[in-house]
Design goal:
Aminopeptidase; 7 strands; 153 residues; alpha+beta; 27% strand; 7-stranded mixed β-sheet; 27% helix; 4 helices
Length: 153
């Protein structure tokens, strides 16, 4: 990753999100729309115990985001979920996504026993496998990482 990229906690959605929302929508992804809507209406602002949301900033400009929630699809409080991880296409393959995921997993350790996620593309699936996740067959997730069985850190 380049030295001028910083990973920082986000507590307020800023106008910088519009570039990510627009690009992700053009690529057929609607999860950034859902992120903004859920945050604005209070359904998900990553503020429950163990939850957090980070941005990747390059020279002060938001180029990527990612969050950690308690998994809303399961009743188990010890299971987290990576949500809304997105990096602008021009900034991919430069370590920014990996830095976001590693920071989120660091935050998850000690709070969650397992972290799950759902991805829609093979490319993203391969990325998460390279971050230590394993593919799973589940109605609500495509990948999972168990901290006791993970060798990511």
């Amino acid at each position: 990753m380049t030295d001028h990229v910083q990973i920082a906690r986000i507590q307020v959605l800023s106008p910088d999100f519009e570039a990510l929302r627009t690009e992700s929508g053009q690529q057929g992804f609607r999860f950034m729309d859902r992120l903004i809507s859920d945050w604005t209406n209070g359904l998900n602002a990553f503020c429950q115990p163990g939850e957090t949301f980070f941005g990747a900033f390059e020279n002060g400009r938001l180029v990527g985001v990612g969050g950690l929630n308690r998994d809303p699809y399961l009743q188990a409080h010890a299971i987290g979920r990576l949500r809304h991880v997105y990096v602008l296409s021009a900034r991919r393959r430069q370590g920014i996504g990996r830095a976001l995921v590693e920071r989120l997993l660091t935050e998850a350790q000690g709070v969650f026993d397992q972290v799950r996620l759902r991805t829609q593309t093979e490319e993203a699936g391969a990325f998460y496998v390279s971050c230590g996740f394993r593919p799973i067959r589940d109605a609500t997730a495509t990948h999972a990482l168990e901290f006791g069985a993970k060798n990511w850190n």
